[in-house]
């Protein structure tokens, strides 16, 4: 049991990675569509690249979406509508007519008797209410058959048999002319117009139910291909019926292959492919990004983002496949570039797109567009902390999506007449969603404890609490840190390192000195050196301790680990030579171990740059009469000495880059001291 616990303790990091690998693989397999993958890739308008294809089994030819849409529209246009008839309205209107006639009729004004007017009005009301009255205009032809529902009885009628209230004037005029009672035309019209009420209206519920029933009964198939029948020949263009038959075969294949008999085999296949993707990711991190690989939080962060994109894409495809381009996939390389570097961002983006190829329809087009968009994201997004850069990059990414989609459509259709322009809205929405990167980065920093260039920009503010405290307590150290930051930033820009990170690291690298500022030369006023009264060992220990104290102050103020790395490594394992030499002069011998910084040595380009800039800037203060030649020599001497001590062995920095850094430091120091090139006399 003790050996088992010991094994788990020693291999805790590896065990966590294995668990993450298995859990991620299972989750992705769960998200993948429950169907096999059709083994032929084809595009509309392109030649068939395989051998002659024969039907492996009998299957039905599905109607294409345009045909089904047209048939549904025909059903909607031809379905007999239902109208509701209210029988009580006619009796109520007739009673109302008699009451109003009693009030308005005056014997002296009309030749026609009141009884005659009453008879004419009632006869017209009986006539129009026999089939029903409506005051709404429906988009039906007069000869259109309708169903008239009166209680539990349904009768067929022609739409033209319904009386429209707008025809009342004409009907009254015809009636009085027929009965030679023109003198009461105005009275009769006014009375009927006042009392006439509609008693027929469209029954939307019954009509829609009838339409839906007919649409549900619509046959989605238009024929059968028998087993063994030739579907398409090699080199034949995939278009028209051939394209629809191939789509039908693909749909039938997808539905048949995910069965109980081969369920296990499909799981095995999916497991192998997904495992290969994640295995490639682990191998890449282990071989090329060991710092990330050794940090389980960072590895978890990468896997979390991959799974998040797979989940969102799966969700959108299930809701509506047309919205798949709304998912902002390019936010993945953007965020990974902000936290790590462009190469990690692009590599993870490519692997994620390979996984999404199993999920999305028309996977070739989707993968092509996403690959191109991801590359554009990596190439265009620089200095993410500048908001304008993000907006410009999002505009370029959106343009790439639109151009790529347009090109694919033209290749497949051969024209732009059937172009669905609303699809471009999805790309615009995707671009807008990509702008969510800034708040998402902030969220990730709080959850995973990472640091991005956005946070580095905030830390570089010299008005921050910690830097203000350094300025007040150790003004000389603060000024030294500013000079080192400028030197290091210029060098980082020259060799393509993270200039913002190295600048922040330089600003905070000596914060440990503010606990005992007068013990450091740059803060000593009036040339009073406090070390004159101390033993060399004590002095060396005070100097060395500023690294340890700096780490403690940084942790207390919640500085990110990436910044603390600069405090920890800016002296590496170098020797406090002045006090070592002083001890040897006084005692005749000295133990080097008492005068060496604890390390570690720099392990990145940025930390190596800081070590060089810090040493060179500090040493330059001791130059009494600096000249270009003297500066060149002492820069070469200091950095070559650091190389000889092996301080840069773990920094992944080349000799060429070190030489470039030397040139930058020499140039900057010459500018600081306002020196000109020495010309021969």
TrEMBL record:
PROSITE patterns: HD (PS51831). Residues 477-619 form the HD domain. Keywords: Membrane, Transmembrane, Transmembrane helix. Pfam families: 7TM-7TMR_HD (PF07698), 7TMR-HDED (PF07697), HD (PF01966). The chain crosses the membrane at residues 14-32, 263-285, 297-317, 323-339, 344-360, 390-412, 424-444. NCBIfam families: HDIG (TIGR00277). This is Phosphohydrolase. The lineage of its organism: Bacteria, Pseudomonadati, Bacteroidota, Flavobacteriia, Flavobacteriales.
């Amino acid at each position: 049991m003790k050996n088992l616990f010991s094994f788990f303790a020693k291999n805790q990091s590896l065990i966590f990675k294995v668990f993450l690998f298995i859990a991620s693989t299972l989750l992705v397999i769960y998200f993948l569509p429950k169907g096999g993958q059709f083994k032929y890739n084809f595009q509309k308008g392109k030649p068939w690249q395989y051998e002659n294809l024969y039907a492996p089994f009998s299957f039905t030819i599905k109607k294409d979406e345009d045909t089904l849409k047209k048939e549904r529209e025909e059903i909607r246009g031809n379905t007999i509508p239902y109208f509701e008839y209210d029988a009580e309205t006619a009796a109520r209107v007739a009673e109302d007519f008699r009451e109003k006639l009693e009030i308005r009729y005056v014997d002296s004004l009309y030749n026609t008797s009141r009884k005659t007017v009453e008879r004419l009005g009632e006869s017209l009301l009986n006539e129009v209410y026999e089939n029903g009255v409506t005051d709404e205009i429906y988009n039906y032809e007069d000869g259109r058959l309708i169903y008239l529902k009166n209680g539990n009885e349904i009768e067929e009628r022609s739409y033209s048999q319904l009386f429209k209230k707008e025809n009342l004037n004409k009907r009254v005029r015809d009636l009085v002319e027929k009965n030679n009672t023109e003198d009461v035309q105005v009275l009769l019209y006014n009375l009927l117009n006042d009392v006439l009420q509609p008693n027929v209206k469209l029954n939307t519920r019954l009509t829609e139910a009838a339409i839906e029933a007919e649409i549900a009964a619509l046959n989605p198939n238009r024929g059968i291909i028998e087993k063994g029948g030739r579907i398409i020949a090699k080199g034949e263009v995939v278009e028209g019926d051939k394209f629809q038959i191939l789509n039908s075969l693909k749909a039938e294949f997808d539905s048949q292959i995910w069965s109980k008999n081969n369920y296990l085999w499909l799981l095995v296949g999916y497991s192998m492919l997904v495992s290969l993707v994640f295995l490639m990711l682990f191998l890449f991190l282990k071989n090329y990004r060991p710092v990330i690989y050794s940090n389980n939080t960072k590895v978890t962060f990468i896997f979390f983002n991959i799974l998040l994109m797979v989940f969102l894409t799966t969700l959108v495809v299930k809701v509506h496949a047309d919205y798949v381009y709304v998912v902002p996939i390019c936010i993945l390389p953007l965020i990974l570039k902000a936290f790590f570097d462009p190469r990690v961002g692009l590599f993870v983006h490519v692997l994620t797109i390979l996984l999404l190829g199993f999920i999305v329809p028309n996977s070739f087009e989707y993968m092509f567009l996403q690959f191109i968009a991801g590359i554009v994201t990596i190439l265009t997004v620089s200095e993410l902390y500048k908001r304008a850069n993000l907006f410009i990059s999002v505009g370029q990414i959106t343009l790439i999506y639109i151009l790529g989609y347009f090109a694919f459509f033209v290749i497949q259709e051969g024209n732009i007449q059937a172009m669905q322009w609303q699809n471009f809205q999805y790309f615009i929405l995707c671009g807008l969603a990509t702008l969510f990167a800034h708040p998402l980065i902030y969220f990730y920093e709080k959850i995973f404890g990472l640091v991005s260039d956005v946070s580095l920009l905030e830390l570089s503010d010299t008005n921050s609490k910690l830097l203000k405290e350094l300025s007040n307590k150790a003004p000389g150290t603060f000024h030294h840190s500013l000079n080192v930051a400028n030197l290091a930033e210029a060098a980082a820009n020259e060799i393509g390192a993270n200039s913002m990170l190295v600048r922040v690291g330089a600003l905070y690298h000596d914060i440990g000195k503010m606990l005992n500022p007068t013990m450091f030369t740059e803060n000593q006023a009036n040339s009073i050196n406090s070390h004159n009264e101390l033993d060399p060992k004590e002095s060396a220990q005070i100097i060395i301790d500023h690294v340890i104290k700096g780490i403690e102050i940084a942790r207390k103020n919640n500085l990110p680990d990436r910044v603390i790395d600069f405090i920890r490594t800016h002296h590496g394992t170098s020797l406090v030579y002045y006090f070592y030499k002083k001890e040897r002069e006084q005692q005749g011998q000295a133990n080097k171990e008492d005068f060496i910084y604890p390390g570690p040595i720099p392990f990145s380009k940025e930390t190596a740059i800081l070590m060089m800039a810090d040493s060179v800037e500090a040493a330059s203060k001791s130059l009494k009469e600096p000249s270009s030649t003297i500066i060149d020599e002492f820069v070469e001497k200091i950095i070559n000495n650091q190389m000889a001590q092996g301080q840069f062995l773990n920094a992944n920095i080349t000799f060429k880059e070190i030489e470039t850094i030397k040139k930058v430091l020499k140039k900057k120091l010459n500018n600081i001291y306002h020196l000109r090139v020495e010309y021969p006399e």
